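Hi, here's the filled form for the chain we discussed.

Project: internal
Contact: R.S.
Residues: 195
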Amino acid sequence: MPAVPVDFDAPAHEVARALIGVTVLVDGVGGRIVETEAYDREDPASHAHAGPTARNAAMFGPPGRVYVYRSYGIHWCMNFVCREEGHGAGVLIRALEPTHGLETMRRRRGVQAPRLLAAGPGRVGQALGVDGGFNGRRLDAPPFLLLPGAPDAPVVVEAGPRIGISKAVEVPWRFGEAGSRFLSRPFPRAAAGRR
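And the returned structure, exactly as it came back:
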């Protein structure tokens, strides 16, 4: 199995930060991760907060797997599971800068502009062809491939509040590449912190 460039045993907010700049490919289609959100079982906004269910079982590990859920009955959203098995933590992949398989993404998404292909978690799922059948799959095995960012081009990461939640809204566990035009939404200038 290929090595992955991130330690998925780490806490969710550390994994979410470390994933910025990593390339994720699904059957050769994908791009650089430019935006993530962290969720942990202790976090009331997390799907894992109330404990394991049939829907969220993959979120409880083992780490380095994919947790896929359907949002609003429409969009498939992809998360990377982290922490020790049984804990319940993950990182939502919120946006990619498309780099591989753009024509496939355009066909799946029905749009041409690269900025609109994978800016938002539902768009990421659709662009990569991810659905419920990917739930629980390993990130270190096909169809997934994770590639490290370029070591000579360090990424400046912003942190701020997560989007679209009603609980724990003040937790600054949304991370993004500073200045990326591929973010789902810009970071508020007053709230954003650079790390």
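Let me know if anything looks off before we file it.
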